[in-house]
Amino acid sequence: MALAGYFALAGSLPALKAARPRLRFGRVSGRTIAATVVIAFLSWLVLTTFNRLAQPDMSAYRNLLPIQAMGGVISAGILFSLLNAVLEELAFRYVLYEAIAAERGPLLAVLATAVIFGIGHLHGFPPGPTGAVLAGIYGLALGWLRMFTGGIGLPVAAHIIADATIFHLVASSGIWDRQP
């Protein structure tokens, strides 16, 4: 909702419309694709390793998504992975990144958005302070990828892989198979 409000406001006010940065996919090359694959693989590895070692209680995630209203587990997983990644990347690697980079430069934008991203994931997966630190490190990687490519397309692609991994781990726990 906040992003929709931002885009509506920025699109309707001439001063904000002129100041709004152009949304870019970013450069696609062998190097940027390789960087995206490495980030996606490492996020998968960290998430699955954390899940295997910590065996977190997944029951807190049971009511976060209306699985049946989304057409079942598979369609919910696809929708979650795509929508969450796109919306978070628009918020962090487009709106916040661009605002901070315009004022303080791209390196501070990468660092600041990573910190905010980590704090914003305190109640995500992995849960708690460990999850926030891991999400902050992941936010650094996505911010670097944003800076490296000049756009949000490949950060979105890497983020989709992480969100799909998270959804798979939560769904594999069986929380949506059991009655609450």
Short structural description:
By secondary structure, the protein is an all-alpha fold. Helices cover 73% and strands 0% of the residues.
Explain how this protein is built.
By secondary structure, the protein is an all-alpha fold. It has one domain (25-172). The chain has helices spanning 2-12, 14-19, 30-54, 73-104, 106-120, 128-149, 153-172. Helix 4 (73-104) runs antiparallel to helix 5 and helix 5 (106-120) packs antiparallel against helix 6.
Give me the secondary-structure topology.
Layout: H1 2-12, H2 14-19, H3 30-54, H4 73-104, H5 106-120, H6 128-149, H7 153-172
Helix pairs in contact: 3-6, 3-7, 4-5, 4-7, 5-6, 6-7
Distance between the termini: 29 Å
SSE arrangement, N to C: HHHHHHH
Q: Are there runs of 5+ residues with pLDDT below 50, and where?
A: none
Mean pLDDT: 90
Q: How much helix is in the residues?
A: over 70%
What global shape is seen? Answer: globular
Strand content: under 5%
Count the domains. Answer: 1
Output the number of helix runs: 7
Work out the number of β strands.
Answer: 0
Main β-sheet, in a few words? Answer: none
Instruction: Decide which structural class fits the backbone.
Output: mainly alpha
In quaternary terms, these chains amount to: single chain
Radius of gyration: 17 Å
